[in-house]
């Protein structure tokens, strides 16, 4: 009995270390890695690009944000392709279906536009603004931050709103959900909560493997040193 107790005492530091390792590993993960772990159905490369773009916006004078929405338009609309993260506390808040514009494609989005009346979705980095009640109910305005790519979003009324045509039943029967006039529409059941999570200056990153945009976007060109400073500030705010 005494020998067993001594053995337990001797192994206590090792046991404690084993329990502490996951927390240390979590803290050591980059924000992109941590968020990718939370959303295994998402492409980790897309999550990493979204984090880098959002952090790069802060280095260019943008206010810090606590939430990041990632839309991966390379996935079909029948699959969840919208993720909303709490970037400070490193939590996944939503994983949802999201519509693309009717002129962006059928089940898959392949065409994107910044032009008024194009009825197409836009890619790139956005910052959310205020909410309002419109013809689609409770809606969230967004400002496109990338000239020539999405900076007409406000003028085009590209907003987040709920829509009855965004539903799993339609996705299963038709192989796609309904399409918008360019807005990233979501299920009506979660629209209000999702919008409240993203309102007031949060970041939205809409991705598609458009090589011209990937090569030219200023928000994907920040140096690692700049991004490291922003991530350090985020970690400090979270108390990790």
Please give a quick description of this structure:
By secondary structure, this protein is of the alpha+beta class. Helices cover 39% and strands 20% of the residues.
Structural class call reads alpha+beta
Instruction: Report the count of strand segments.
Output: 8
Helical proportion?
25-40%
> Tell me about the biggest sheet?
8 strands, mixed
Low-pLDDT windows of residues: 1-26
Order of helices and strands: HHHEEEEEHEHEHEHH
- Computed CA radius of gyration, to the nearest angstrom: 21 Å
Mean pLDDT: 88
Task: Tell me the overall shape.
Answer: globular
Total number of helices: 8
Q: Estimate the strand proportion.
A: 15-25%
CA(first)-CA(last) distance: 40 Å
Within the largest sheet, what's the order of strands? 3-2-1-8-4-5-6-7
Tags for this entry?
eight-stranded mixed β-sheet, 8 helices, 240 residues, alpha+beta, globular
Task: Please describe what this structure looks like.
This protein has an 8-stranded mixed beta sheet. Strand 4 and strand 5 (137-144) form a beta hairpin. The protein has 8 helices and 8 strands; from the N terminus they run αααβββββαβαβαβαα. Helix 2 packs across helix 3 and helix 3 (44-59) packs across helix 8. Helices cover 39% and strands 20% of the residues. The longest helix has 27 residues, at 2-28. It is globular. It has helices spanning 2-28, 31-38, 44-59, 153-156, 168-174, 188-198, 211-216, 224-238; strands at 67-72, 82-86, 91-96, 124-134, 137-144, 159-163, 186-187, 203-207. The model is unreliable at 1-26 (pLDDT under 50). With 240 residues, the chain is of the alpha+beta class.
């Amino acid at each position: 009995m005494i020998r067993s107790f001594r053995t337990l005492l001797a192994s206590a530091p090792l046991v404690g270390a084993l329990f502490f390792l996951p927390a240390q590993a979590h803290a050591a993960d980059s924000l992109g890695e941590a968020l990718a772990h939370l959303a295994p159905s998402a492409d980790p490369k897309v999550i990493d690009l979204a984090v880098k773009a959002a952090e790069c916006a802060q280095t260019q004078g943008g206010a810090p944000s606590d939430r990041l929405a990632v839309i991966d338009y390379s996935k079909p609309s029948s699959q969840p392709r919208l993720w909303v993260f709490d970037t400070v506390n490193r939590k996944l808040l939503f994983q949802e279906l999201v519509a693309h514009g009717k002129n962006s494609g059928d089940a898959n989005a392949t065409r994107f536009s910044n032009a008024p009346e194009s009825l197409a979705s836009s890619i790139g980095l956005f910052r959310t603004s205020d909410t309002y009640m419109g013809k689609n109910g409770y809606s969230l305005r967004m400002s496109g931050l990338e000239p020539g790519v999405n900076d007409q979003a406000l003028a085009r009324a590209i907003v987040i709103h709920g829509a009855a045509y965004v539903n799993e039943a339609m996705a299963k029967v038709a192989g796609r959900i309904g399409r918008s006039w360019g807005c990233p529409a979501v299920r009506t059941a979660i629209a209000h909560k999702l919008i409240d999570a993203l309102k007031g200056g949060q970041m939205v990153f809409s991705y598609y493997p458009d090589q011209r945009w990937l090569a030219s976007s200023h928000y994907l060109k920040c140096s690692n040193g700049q991004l490291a400073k922003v991530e350090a500030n985020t970690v400090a705010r979270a108390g990790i």
